[in-house]
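Weekly modeling sync, notes
Attendees: S.R. (lead), two postdocs, one rotation student

Agenda item 3: backlog of single-chain predictions. S.R. asked that every request posted to the team notebook include the full sequence so nobody has to chase files. The rotation student volunteered to paste the first one in as an example of the format we agreed on. Action items at the bottom.

Example entry:
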Amino acid sequence: MGIDWLFLYLILLIRIIERMFYMLDLKLIRQRPDWIKEKLSSRGVTAEEIDELLGLDEQRRAKIVADENLKKKRNDVSEQIAQIKREKGDASQAIKDMREVGAQIKQLDQEVAELDEKVTYILVRLPNIPDDSVPVGPNEDYNVEIRKWATPREFDFEPKAHWEIGENLGI
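Predicted structure, as returned to the notebook:
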């Protein structure tokens, strides 16, 4: 029992850490998919990527519901098995059925974990939503200079790039 709790705790901790690196909340994407598609299109994210994410999330949520229903059934039948055994009855068929349910639960847990990985893979690669004041453009030439701090230094020689200096120093 202790190892099971430790394992579940570690899985929960990993999920929490993974979600720390998400830029966008999946709940927001579910609630406002069209707005997200519109905003992220300026950052190079296609509507198909968001649709794929939402499809995977829907599958994941459906499998979680099915998994939880099977676990509830297993728990209910386990109580019935205990009752039958207390009354000195034969519970072999119920035990056999629960082994099959246990295998189904294990399969669903694995499928949920795979879908979790896929959803996480997409989520961590989605950029932040740009502010409305940010100009839309394919490169930095479309950026707007808001302010300058001091004036750029003028050199009487051609400055070298940092990688050239490193190569010259042998590092």
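Discussion: group reviewed the output briefly. The mean pLDDT is 88.
Action items: rotation student to repeat for the remaining queue; S.R. to check formatting next week.
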